[in-house]
Design goal:
- Its EC number is 2.3.2.27.
- Keywords: Metal-binding, Transferase, Ubl conjugation pathway, Zinc, Zinc-finger.
- Pathway: Protein modification; protein ubiquitination.
- Pfam families: Sina_ZnF.
- With 278 residues, the chain is of the alpha+beta class.
- It folds into two domains: 26-123, Zinc/RING finger domain, C3HC4 (zinc finger) (Herpes Virus-1), CATH 3.30.40.10; 153-271, Apoptosis, Tumor Necrosis Factor Receptor Associated Protein 2, Chain A (Sandwich), CATH 2.60.210.10.
- 18% of the residues lie in helices and 32% in strands.
- The protein has helices at residues 26-35, 61-64, 77-80, 85-93, 111-120, 142-148, 167-173; strands at 8-9, 17-18, 49-52, 58-60, 81-83, 96-97, 108-109, 125-127, 136-138, 154-156, 159-164, 179-187, 190-199, 202-209, 218-225, 230-236, 244-247, 262-270.
- A five-stranded mixed sheet has the order 10-12-13-14-17.
- A hairpin with an 8-residue loop joins strand 8 and strand 9 (136-138).
Length: 278
């Protein structure tokens, strides 16, 4: 027995409409288009649905938490707002568009698969990780923006070697001069930015994940070595990662006549992956 299947395609307004002729399935076209997105933020209604008991209009739970009155009938929400569990169950089964459909993504998936796709969607929007830069665009254009505006080059791969030559001289200069190093890395379909700063005889390191997936999945395995001393450690990556401060006195060679080179190896790994320094 052949099963009937509803097929939907991309719409720049609602993000969803039926692929069949309108006269063949007017019901599904009107119904899905009317309930596919929040009436306030226009995002897909797949992460909690609330409805007004007075007018029946739908908004997402995040918008409902900020509203004092229904934006459609102006009734006080305390008396009319209610979570719509029935529609939430329906939405978990429907193949709805990726929330980046307005930016060009045309993928349709059920909720269980759509969340994973959106974390790695190439059309997802990212803010520039550089301080005070207002740029926001698709992840596809991030590398080009950082290269042209901030003169940063994207490194593909989860490992990078950094060599700071004349380290002893730069430590002496750090009393009045700041030495900065910024590295942009692309691995595991995510983007990471590593910042190193040498100032006041302290080497400061910070690692930030600038993508949209969970911030606790990754960590940086750090190996710092000089011809005098070496040290290793693991730094978890967060969206707002605390800075790692290392005293340069532990890395500077004690011999006055000899300058030294410090090598830093950074390796981004899943936190549950085996620890290995190279």
């Amino acid at each position: 027995m052949k099963r009937n299947t509803l097929l939907f395609s991309f719409s720049p307004i609602s993000g969803l409409h039926c692929k069949k002729e309108p006269e063949c399935c007017a019901n599904c076209k009107e119904l899905i288009a009317s309930i596919s997105e929040c009436g306030v933020c226009l995002e897909p209604l797949d992460r909690g649905i609330t409805s007004c008991q007075t007018c029946g209009n739908l908004v997402c739970t995040s918008c409902a938490a900020r509203l004092l009155k229904c934006p459609f009938c102006r009734i006080t929400i305390d008396y009319s707002w209610q979570r719509n569990v029935a529609l939430e169950r329906i939405f978990t089964k429907l193949e709805l568009p990726c929330r980046n459909f307005r930016f060009g993504c045309k993928v349709y998936l059920p909720k269980a698969k759509r969340d994973k796709h959106e974390d790695k969607c190439k059309f997802r929007q990212l803010k520039c990780p550089m301080h005070a830069c207002p740029w926001t665009n698709s992840v596809l254009h991030l590398s080009e923006h950082l290269n042209q505006v901030h003169h940063l080059h994207l490194l593909k791969g989860n490992g990078v070697n950094i060599e700071i030559s004349n380290f002893k001289t730069k430590v002496s200069e750090s009393e009045t001069k700041v030495h900065k190093y910024v590295i942009l890395m692309n691995c595991y379909s995510q983007y990471f930015i590593c910042k190193l700063c040498l100032y006041k005889k302290v080497l400061t390191m910070s690692f930030v994940q600038i993508s949209n997936s969970s911030p606790f999945h990754f960590g940086v395995f750090v190996n710092i070595a000089s011809n005098f001393k070496s040290m290793k450690g693991i730094v978890p990556i967060h969206y707002a990662c605390p800075e790692l401060h290392i005293s340069c006195d532990a890395l500077v060679t004690p011999w006055k006549s000899q300058d030294n080179c410090v090598k830093i190896y950074l390796n981004i790994r899943y936190m549950n992956a085996p620890i290995r320094f190279m």
